[in-house]
């Protein structure tokens, strides 16, 4: 076009088919020297077109702060509209000055257009069509800044290697004819070659007498010296512009709202591609679900990207259903919504499970049929060329319970709804244009027939996020305040991610809101009147705000700190080598919990006399394990429960433990939990069998569980055949010597050395032999009870403690001589 010469002062390489963009030679009087005013506006030495003063010329061909101020008017010329031209006056832009008919302009430093000056167009105006004005963000009679544009301002990658363009009918004229993509591409190049295209840009084109509207979705630019595309991702930024050439590969996609039909091409993606061309996974706003999203994409959408003829040759059917299950607040609904946005399909139908049910007979089933009516109608008309219809079904377990369970009441409505849904998804008349995304917290309640391949065949667990996922979620929720400079530099997202173990996505969002509430509170003056302080503009959310928020927002699947701390109220005192050995064994168990190459389940039984500290040791070991999920099953938590309610409570704790990567469950006082009494004997066999199964049940893949159980009757555990459910047995002894008691009293900090010596001299021996050769003593819990009692009467400190401990020792000795002592049971049951 310029004889191989660049109008910008350098000879950029030009390949065949890569013509120059519309642009004129600089007019007479433009100095070509380096640093002089370059091409981009009229020369300062030239008279102003139309008699108006001209701005300073930009340097090096780049737009400057100067330019022309023109008002917008309607451009009704069809020749301009269907060639994507904007109209200018030749009085403002003389052809002689610019050297050729078309020039490139940038409007308001944002959008680039190809302008063609016209003799009859009024000066001081710019003519934009109804399609171009929204793209330029301009209304009629708005004043715009117009500057000459240098297409090489973005570097060497100025040409389009490929472009994804969405097509729809632009007017009332329609046709059922299939549009050939090669034919469309030739028409685009014929009408718009050498023009600049940018993502989001709308363009009108007359193709065989029918007006079409094109919208650029993505572009991929290439270097001036190479026809090959770069390895970077397609661009969706509207400021990324490229010159259309005859070598540009154009991929066409139909607009979801249009009924235009595009013929599939083997060398191009499907015209009704399932994935939005400009979709970016990084902008989904979902943190910690990368692997789950990739699994969904591979299983459910990979086959839909390929041309239909390839899928037909493979003889496979597309996936029709996805089930997202997992704990509440982990992002199931959010992921389903983002999948709906990602897909180039009809607007998803979102329905909550309970909304399907209706009090009138047959209406619930009718509601299910209505969900599929549009998909059925279109599939009958267009077959495999029909668009994808997405149904997002939240709380699926509300209407799709196991048939025959009686969950639907005496009317059997629940069973009928399930039957209707089964027939619609994979019945006699199969649909290949539907995708049902179901979400539930209770996968176990859903009917098995709905979960088979052909229906909801892709099952994806949306579990609690790991540390990297929590960091992503925190980054998403703090992004706005960080960009607005409202996040203090002291806030470390990585540190917060490590402190929020087992927090769900919803709980992390609540944590950020709670942190901002502390920041708000600092800048509120709550005197006689509540008002915002004058320094509110300086508000920042800092590290301490998040630390305070962590105390308020506790994870549902976290550590039962209150219960654990109640068990170790007095701390752990290592008063003997045996107790130190128990803690070392617990430390080894905790280390094994974090090693993936070791067994995923380990069950331990702590046995010993009542009050010997079994529960406290088990609770301390659980805390030291560092597991994000620690729960206790205690008799006081299920007191008054029916047998079935107790079983449900126990199952719920273990099922929650399976949802965490590593978990510890403490089952305290097994004999009380199973309602065992020595008179009778009587116990709950159903609860016992539940515990036996759970103590041996391995957790799901990539999950690890440590079970710590306590009992005061090991022989009974053997008799009930639950003892074999444990991998190891740890004996917890009483305080059995004056030396051990001396250590406990000294660590308590209540007694002086003289008082300790006096007390020990007056306390009976703590060690004796019974008829069954069993040593007795006093439980550590009794010792602490004696210390607490003695503290109530400081003047009688030693006397109260001595009387209490002597009484406990005598009770222990008598208990060991009773008919139900542990040694006797072991002897009788051996």
UniProtKB/TrEMBL annotation:
Q: Which PROSITE patterns match?
A: AAA
The question of whether Transmembrane helix is a record keyword is answered with no
For this UniProt record, give its keywords in alphabetical order, as a comma-separated list. Answer: ATP-binding, Cytoplasm, ER-Golgi transport, Hydrolase, Nucleotide-binding, Protein transport, Repeat, Transport
Molecular-function GO terms, alphabetical: ATP binding; ATP hydrolysis activity
Q: Where is the CDC48 N-terminal subdomain domain?
A: 69-152
Gene Ontology BP annotations: Golgi to plasma membrane protein transport; intra-Golgi vesicle-mediated transport; SNARE complex disassembly
Q: Record's SUPFAM superfamilies?
A: ADC-like (SSF50692), Cdc48 domain 2-like (SSF54585), P-loop containing nucleoside triphosphate hydrolases (SSF52540)
Q: What is its main location?
A: membrane
* Bias-annotated ranges (Low complexity): 31-43
Similarity section: Belongs to the AAA ATPase family.
* Role: Required for vesicle-mediated transport. Catalyzes the fusion of transport vesicles within the Golgi cisternae. Is also required for transport from the endoplasmic reticulum to the Golgi stack. Seems to function as a fusion protein required for the delivery of cargo proteins to all compartments of the Golgi stack independent of vesicle origin.
Official protein name in the record: Vesicular-fusion protein SEC18
Q: Which gene encodes it?
A: SEC18
């Amino acid at each position: 076009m310029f004889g191989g010469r660049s109008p910008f002062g350098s000879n950029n390489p030009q390949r065949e088919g890569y013509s120059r963009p519309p642009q004129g030679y600089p007019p007479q009087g433009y100095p070509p020297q380096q640093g002089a005013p370059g091409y981009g506006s009229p020369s300062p030495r030239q008279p102003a077109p139309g008699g108006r003063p001209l701005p300073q010329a930009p340097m090096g061909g780049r737009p400057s702060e100067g330019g022309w101020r023109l008002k917008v008017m309607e451009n009704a010329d069809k020749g301009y509209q269907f060639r994507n031209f904007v109209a200018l006056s030749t009085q403002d832009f003389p052809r002689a000055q610019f050297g050729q008919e078309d020039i490139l302009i940038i409007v308001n430093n944002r959008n680039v257009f190809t302008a063609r000056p016209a003799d009859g167009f009024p000066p001081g105006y710019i003519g934009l069509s109804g399609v171009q004005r929204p793209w330029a963000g301009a209304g009629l009679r708005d004043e715009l800044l117009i500057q000459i544009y240098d297409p090489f301002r973005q570097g060497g990658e100025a040409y389009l290697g490929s472009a994804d363009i969405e097509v729809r009918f632009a007017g009332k004229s329609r046709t059922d004819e299939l549009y050939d993509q090669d034919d469309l591409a030739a028409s685009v190049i014929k009408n718009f070659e050498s023009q600049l295209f940018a993502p989001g840009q709308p363009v009108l084109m007359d193709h065989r007498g029918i007006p079409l509207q094109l919208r650029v979705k993505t572009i991929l630019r290439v270097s001036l010296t190479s026809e090959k595309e770069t390895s970077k991702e397609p661009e969706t930024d509207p400021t990324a512009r490229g010159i259309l050439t005859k070598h540009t590969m154009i991929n066409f996609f139909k607009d979801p709202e249009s009924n235009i039909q595009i013929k599939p091409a083997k060398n191009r993606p499907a015209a009704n591609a399932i994935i939005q061309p400009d979709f970016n996974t990084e902008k989904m706003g979902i943190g910690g679900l990368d692997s789950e999203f990739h699994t969904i994409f591979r299983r459910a959408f990979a086959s839909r990207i390929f041309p239909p003829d390839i899928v037909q040759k493979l003889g496979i059917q597309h996936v029709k259903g996805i089930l997202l299950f997992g704990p509440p607040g982990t992002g199931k609904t959010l992921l389903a919504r983002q999948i709906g946005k990602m897909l180039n399909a009809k607007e998803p139908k979102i329905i909550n499970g309970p909304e399907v049910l209706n009090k009138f007979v047959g209406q619930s089933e009718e509601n299910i049929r209505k969900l599929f009516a549009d998909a059925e109608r279109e599939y009958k008309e267009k077959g495999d060329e029909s668009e994808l219809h997405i149904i997002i079904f939240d709380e699926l377990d509300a209407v799709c319970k196991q048939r025959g369970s009686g969950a639907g009441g005496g009317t059997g409505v629940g069973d009928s709804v399930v039957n209707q849904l089964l027939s619609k998804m994979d019945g006699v008349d199969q649909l290949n244009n539907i995708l049902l995304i179901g979400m539930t917290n209770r996968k176990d309640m859903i009917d098995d027939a709905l979960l088979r391949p052909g229906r909801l065949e892709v099952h994806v667990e949306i579990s609690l996020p790991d540390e990297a996922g929590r960091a992503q979620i925190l980054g998403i929720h703090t992004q706005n305040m960080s960009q607005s400079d409202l996040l203090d530099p002291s806030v470390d997202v990585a540190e917060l991610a490590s402190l929020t173990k087992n927090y769900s996505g919803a709980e992390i969002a609540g944590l950020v809101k709670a942190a901002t509430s502390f920041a708000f509170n600092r800048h509120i003056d709550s005197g006689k009147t509540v008002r915002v302080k004058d320094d509110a503009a300086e508000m920042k959310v800092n590290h301490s705000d998040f630390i305070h928020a962590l105390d308020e927002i506790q994870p549902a699947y976290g550590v039962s700190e209150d219960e654990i701390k109640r068990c170790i109220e007095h701390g752990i005192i290592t008063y003997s080598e045996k107790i130190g050995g128990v803690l070392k064994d617990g430390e080894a168990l905790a280390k094994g919990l974090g090693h993936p190459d070791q067994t995923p389940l380990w069950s331990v039984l702590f046995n010993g006399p009542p009050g010997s500290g079994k529960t406290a040791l088990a609770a301390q070991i659980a805390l030291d394990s560092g597991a994000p999920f620690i729960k206790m099953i205690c008799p006081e938590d299920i007191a008054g429960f029916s047998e079935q309610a107790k079983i449900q409570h126990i199952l719920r704790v273990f099922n929650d433990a399976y949802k965490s990567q590593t978990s510890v469950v403490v089952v305290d006082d097994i004999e009380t939990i199973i309602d065992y009494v020595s008179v009778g004997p009587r116990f709950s066999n159903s609860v016992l069998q539940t515990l036996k199964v759970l103590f041996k049940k391995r957790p799901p893949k990539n999950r690890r569980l440590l079970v710590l159980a306590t009992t005061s009757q090991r022989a009974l555990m053997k008799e009930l055949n639950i003892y074999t459910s444990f991998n190891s047995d740890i004996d917890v002894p009483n305080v059995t010597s004056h030396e051990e008691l001396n250590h406990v009293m000294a660590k308590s900090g209540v007694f002086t050395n003289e008082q300790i010596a006096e007390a020990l001299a007056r306390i009976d021996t703590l060690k004796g032999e019974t008829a069954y050769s069993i040593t007795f003593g006093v439980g550590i819990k009794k010792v602490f009870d004696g210390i607490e009692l003695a503290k109530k009467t400081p003047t009688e400190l030693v006397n109260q403690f001595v009387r209490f401990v002597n009484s406990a020792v005598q009770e222990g000795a008598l208990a060991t001589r009773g008919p139900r002592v542990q040694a006797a049971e072991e002897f009788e049951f051996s």
